[in-house]
Amino acid sequence: MPTITIDGKLLEFEQGQLIIDVAHGNGVKIPHYCYHPSLSVVANCRICLAEVWAPNPHNENKLEPMPKLLPTCETHASEGQVVYTTSPKAIANQKAVMEMLLNHHPIDCPTCDQSGECDLQDFAYEYGRGVRRCDTEKITQSKKDIGDNIMLYGDRCIMCTRCVRFTDEITGTSELMIDGRGANECIDVFPGIGINNELSGNVIDICPVGAMLDKDFMFQQRVWLLKTAPSIDPLTSSGDNIIIEHNNNKVYRVKPRTNLEVNEYWITDEVRYGWKFVHDDSRNIEMKDDAEIIAADKLQQANAIALLVSPMISCEDAWLLGQLIRSLDDHAVIGIGPVPVEGEDKTFKSGFTLRSEKAPNARGVQRALGDVLNYDEWKKQMARADTVVVTGNYPVRWDTPVMSDSQTLILIDTLANGLTERADAFVPAATWAEKSGTFENWDNMLQLFERAIYPLGDAQAEGQIAMNLQALVDDMESTVFNPATVRRRMADAGIAGMLEVELPKNTNRVVTDMPLSEV
Ligand code: SF4
Ligand code: FES
User: What is the pTM of this model?
Assistant: First the structure.
């Protein structure tokens, strides 16, 4: 394999790799703004420039310096190159770039949402000069509402053009453009056309400074107070990898988690903003009248049971519910809840696809329960059961099945729905953010998601509820639901794939280097 030396480290690389990629892949930091691994190279910010020496074949392969500093985001690695990002010339360039960028920057970090996750702030600290020598007036630019979810703070923009390239190259929608020239150029939308495509929120993430801000998150939290949990899209069959950011047991933001095999760097706005049902006012989180005891009693008295397992719940939850009901009725009518589909899959210019199937785990529920009835068939056959167990966990009020008055209903759900008042026992369920488990996506990939916040009120994972009911039926102490143990039991029961679940990658856990004090 060819090798290159970067800041004294001898590193192997593959032909065609950029110097910056070789460095980042081996833990060598090179500051960068305009570069993004998924976008075309423009090399316009100039902060990644380094001193490069290369063997000269016309001079017995002796190492010779390139006449100028080279952009590492544009220069391919080649055999025998020696790169210095911390030489006096490279450092002088970094300081000059930072000084130039800060000349017209408002330096309003105390009120800027990006503070704490801002490359301009971090690089000013690491590579900046610390003084402003320019005494000209700062150029000011306006704040603009450029879409349903995005506010543009033009003053803070450093013209890296990542956002423009995103709408050109990833979504192919081209809503953003560069307007004006020289010192007056700015990012803008075309008159009357906002940036409202289904992936628009990603420009907030890729903006390296606080220019593109999320209206939904604006002024909600300082980012250094947020804790993170790696998770999976709970709303569609995409299996997109996400990070849930939360504080004081409240979710504040959902962002993409990089997984090049699934969603690369992106998520849809549907997933980014679709978590609000977790804290919805219409959520039932109170367990009234010993509902679990009543439910266990009704199940024990039942002659024939029907179970509806929602495609919104995890494989582990589904399997435990199935085990409970089958232990009470060998011939139970078991079916999968409605799997919502909206239109057709939509594939964007880059190949990223928005899934029309609006449930995260229809395949996983079938894997966990084996051959189960689809919703229509279940609705027909459940009429012969005297006791019906229904699970929901949909992000919106859903189209519940119609029960006869003589049937006993045990409802395990999150939001209020048409059956809530009718239920003989209502047991509040936890949303995906409040539990761990596994979802199987459209491509049959089984991926683990971790709990972000503790269950609200009396809510519990459906798996825990199944274990509690089983313990009540068996007159034993209930134990704590542990998805990893359940997966092992599922594997022992012959369910394929449960021990090869994909564990979360790229969890972005940052350990702060500053002491935090509570005020
Ligand atoms: S708004 Fe952000 S992403 Fe867009 S050009 Fe300015 S700094 Fe770059
Ligand atoms: S990151 Fe290389 S020039 Fe901008």
Answer: 0.94
- Name the one residue in this structure whose structure tokens are 């703004």: 33
Residue 511 in this model has a pLDDT that exceeds 60? no
From residue 143, give the alpha-carbon distance in Å to each of 36, 109, 140, 451.
25, 16, 10, 37
Atom of ligand 1 nearest to the CA of 33: 8
How many angstroms is it from 159 CA to the middle of ligand 1?
A: 5
**Ligand 1 center from residue 175 Cα (angstroms):** 14
- Work out the percent of the chain whose per-residue pLDDT is above 70: 98
pLDDT number for residue 184: 86
pLDDT of 142 reads 86
CA distance linking residue 409 with residue 463, whole number of Å:
19
Give the 3-state secondary structure of residue 45. coil
Round to whole Å and give the CA distance between 403 and 92: 75
* Interval 259-310: pLDDT, tens: 999 999 999 999 999 999 999 998 989 998 899 999 999 999 999 999 999 9
Output the CA torsion sign for 215, 220, 224, 225: negative
Q: Report helix, strand or coil for 426.
A: strand
Return left, alpha or beta for 444; rule: phi > 0 is left, psi -120 to 50 is alpha, else beta: left
Cα-based distances in Å from 189 to 150, 157, 184, 210, 266: 11, 14, 16, 18, 21
